[in-house]
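Reviewers of the previous submission asked for a worked example of the structure-prediction workflow described in the proposal, so we include one complete record here. The input consisted solely of the amino acid sequence. No template or homolog information was supplied to the procedure at any stage.
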Amino acid sequence: MKRLLQLTALTLMALLSFSALALDRTKVVDDPNDVSPLMIGQDAPDIILFSSDGKPFNLREKIAQKPTVLLFYRGGWCPFCNAQLSQIQQIEDDLSNLGYQLLAISPDTPSALQKTSKDKELSYELISDYQLKATTQFGLAFHISEDYNSKVKSIGGKTARLAGDDKSTLPVPAVYIFDTDGMIQFQYANPNYKVRIKPELLLTAAKLALDDK
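From that input alone, the workflow returned the following structure tokens.
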């Protein structure tokens, strides 16, 4: 009986491992509730993005410099995102005093990032993912309908598309905390774009992440 239980446990472990390996996080889904974000304990992908001045930005190299709070937002056209960017600005000094750097990624072009940073008076760095490398590699990518894309355009927004894809793609808003080894220490992603993590909760998570090291 004991041997049977051991074999059953090993079989379940093998199936779970297979499922984890088979999971394609980079697939762009049609429903934000179906995304499969990177989780705690996983590593940051090795990707090149772009800074707000259009220069190549190596995400892994940047994270290796110091503990990092990384925010994913939909774009400067999104009022919920803009509200969050401003709220996070309020704890930027606290995060900096803890030793963190704060980064925010969106599919916006570098020029759009500059406008957002100026309009919202942000002191932290905004990163362009207009090629959707981070959005897909972090498992946050989902398609939006043409009707919704038209609404975004009607308020002056612009979305991005993957090469060969006929649908526009957005990231599910998310927040990650990384150590300098590039490992995720905390993650929050919510398919409901109207619900964002509270700054005070993020600050608490950042403190706890340091305590766990």
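The first strand starts at residue 48 and ends at 51. We consider this example representative of the routine output the project will generate in years two and three.
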